[in-house]
Amino acid sequence: MNAAVQTTARALIVDDEADIRELLEITLGRMGIETVAVSDLGSARRMFDAQPFDLCLTDMRLPDGEGIALVRHINDRSPACPVAVITAYGSAEAAVASLKAGAFDFVSKPIDVAGLRTLVAQALKLAGLDHDAPPHPSLDVSPRLVGQTEAMAALRRTIAKLARSQAPVYVTGESGTGKELVARMIHAEGPRVNGAFVPVNCGAIPAELMESEFFGYLRGAFTGATRDTAGLFARADGGTLFLDEIADLPMSMQVKLLRAIQERSIRPVGATMETAVDVRIVSASHRDLSVEVARGRFREDLYYRLNVIEVKVPPLRDRIADIPMLAERILAGLARKMRLERAPVLSDDARSALMDYNFPGNIRELENILERAVTLAESPVIERGYLRLYSPLAEAAAANPADALVDESTDLESQLEALERERIQSALEACRYNKTKAAQRLGITFRALRYRLTKLGME
What we know:
The chain has 19 helices and 16 strands. It has helices at 18-29, 41-50, 67-77, 92-100, 113-126, 150-162, 179-188, 210-215, 232-235, 251-263, 289-294, 300-306, 323-338, 348-356, 362-376, 392-399, 412-430, 435-442, 446-455, and strands spanning 10-14, 34-38, 55-59, 61-62, 65-66, 83-87, 105-108, 169-172, 197-201, 240-244, 265-266, 275-276, 280-285, 309-312, 345-346, 381-382.
């Protein structure tokens, strides 16, 4: 059949066990997929180079090499062809290694036929052979991802690449940089676009409710459980679960989350049987998880399961040239929100002031600054004074230049605590001591603010 008019998917199956090859051929055949099966790495390479394939399923251990070598071979020659690796039961290290090498997903032995069918269906969507699926949105024309600097272009390229995989992604970056937006775009560009995107702030769930929130519960499981309730994993089944501020998870919940990710199944509170779930995990934190691991506050095995692929979102100060475009988009949104006749605009002086500002709170701070300015401004043109840009260190240096010099007699920890105390006090005063709003203004969780207040003796 001519590849240009091919409508039937073709899959390459690579496994040295005849019964596994037969199971895979029967399962895919019932899905209307043509299959070619071989038993070793060398044959697989020759077959792939000689014929077009839309999907490849390969065992990790082959008589003449590793399945990862075939993953790299296919990625080099046909990166649009998804490759799934078959690993031994419980071989978490092999599964993670295959994902890092570029595999679309992995299948554990003994093979679950239902899970295999789900994986293959997603791979076909990725290969463009799911004719019922709507076209995926293009990142390049997305109205939500704003910026034309090289930092943003690189981020777009990374998102487009990661969207084609099912590997867990860990998004890092300072508070307010837009980590959730990156997670949403990874979801929207991938084969799970028709599934749910379920975001959760791990720091906002009380520790005693975490298990029931994540895994759900059955009626009568505890006092107040009057009906069966699906948890976050069940709601994200077939889609993406975004775990924001993952570093805030207590250790007891980290153990249960690790098991759910490894086994791809959950047990609702009050249930006796586990339920299979098909969820892609994207996590994020403004804290360095490797440091949290070193300090014993985050499980190392969970860290490696979450951080298969890391994406760093640049701070706003590293893409200053994007500020005018971002400001224009934010002001247009505020005009719709406030039902203004026309969108406010920045004066040249105000625009220069924004581009000279350091933005410790990143895009979230830019949004707050502009919303306050629009509220205060008496005309559609926002002048510099309405921005009320504030930097405690800059103002202190201007008032007392001598005090701005680094005091080397004071240890670094004390200097950082002083700065942290000043920022928190400023946020509390600006929010009239509403701690919830102050936490939002600082770009941290309420729990994190409460911890810092206690630590600094500010309660």
